[in-house]
Specification:
Radius of gyration: 15 Å
Number of strands: 6
Shape: globular
Largest sheet: 6 strands, parallel
Order of helices and strands: EHEHEHHEHEEHH
Strand content: 15-25%
Length: about 170
């Protein structure tokens, strides 16, 4: 199972649009994929709703795709809070991760990708080498949730294909 995590709880975010785009692409390759948005989930404590998501999606997943917006030079704290609230041994240890960074600026949240990579390594996860920083997301992302440039779509397809074989 693959779980795609939209790494913010901000309503109307481009992050969720990109996570949905990834979901649709991965869904063409396997039916065993889920999209987990932090938007409607209180992850500050281990509520029954959080435990249900954990048992249905996080624990059974072998692979995760993290879509990370840039917040203050890194990734959103709500994602770290979610991870801190989870059973780290069951949810994260020895599993695989793919990282996608988003920013309105030119860096594509490269620093946030590095920060999360370090945390995931601490959690004994295997991080795929192809971390994709997507810059100028407000110009790149179209209203229908697709990407303006062919090169971005090609890079995403190649990233997903490599991750599926990882």
């Amino acid at each position: 199972m693959i779980t795609i995590i939209s790494g913010t709880n901000r309503a109307g975010s481009n992050t969720l649009k990109v996570a949905e785009y990834y979901y649709n692409i991965v869904r063409q390759r396997t039916s065993d994929v889920h999209l987990f948005s932090l938007k409607d989930m209180d992850v500050h404590y281990r509520s029954e709703a959080f435990k249900q998501v954990e048992s249905e999606w996080l624990i059974p997943s072998e692979k995760f795709i993290f879509v990370l917006p840039e917040y203050n030079g890194s990734f959103p704290g709500i994602l770290k809070t979610m991870m801190d609230s989870s059973d780290i041994r069951k949810c994260w240890w020895h599993k695989k991760a793919l990282l996608v960074g988003l920013a309105d600026g030119r860096g594509g949240n490269a620093r946030g990708l590095d920060h999360l990579s370090n945390i995931l390594h601490y959690l004994k996860m295997h991080v795929h080498y192809n971390k994709l920083p997507i810059s100028k997301i407000n110009e790149e992302l179209l209203e229908d949730g697709s990407f303006k440039h062919d090169s971005t779509r090609i890079n995403i397809d190649q990233q997903i294909d490599a991750f599926m074989q990882f």
